[in-house]
Amino acid sequence: MVKIGIMGLTGCSGCQCEILNCKDALYKLLGKVEFCYFPLAQDNNSFEEFDILFVEGSVTTDLDEEKVKKGRKVSKILVAIGSCACYGGVQAQRNDEVTLEEMLKEVYGTTEFPVNVSKPKAVSEIVKVDYELPGCPLDKKQFVYAVAFLLNGVKPFFPKIPVCHE
Ligand code: SF4
Fold first, then answer.
1. Which spans of this chain does the record mark as coiled coil (predicted)?
2. 85 lines ligand 1 (CB under 6 A)
3. ipTM for the complex?
């Protein structure tokens, strides 16, 4: 059984929802995939080892960084999914426009925040990324193809797709 993990960092969870939209197809088509870590979708999760770990969201908090570093250590293949994970996403657009303090003050009315927040970063700025599936959200067909390619030991190839698409 190929062990798959789906990890969410800072993002809107839209990419994970796209995966949920094709989860049944994956089980039906491939039949040898186990989602051993997918907190958005299931209660029982194991974080011990992954053949393929898909990571959604940008690295924006200390917790994000800790999670993705731990995920990299226990994964054979790590795939960044969605524009947040591949490029930093919409939240990274503020990086050159306002300071972190200005942003916190504007959004929350205070610079005090319960977690340590930093500039949103692409996953590849923190750990080695083997493949990237951009898109906002990612294209669910590309996700299914990626799993199929990787299960068969084939390097995935994907055409560039628009940042926003149906
Ligand atoms: Fe949400 Fe888009 Fe980021 Fe995916 S890439 S988590 S859909 S904002």
1. none
2. no
3. 0.99
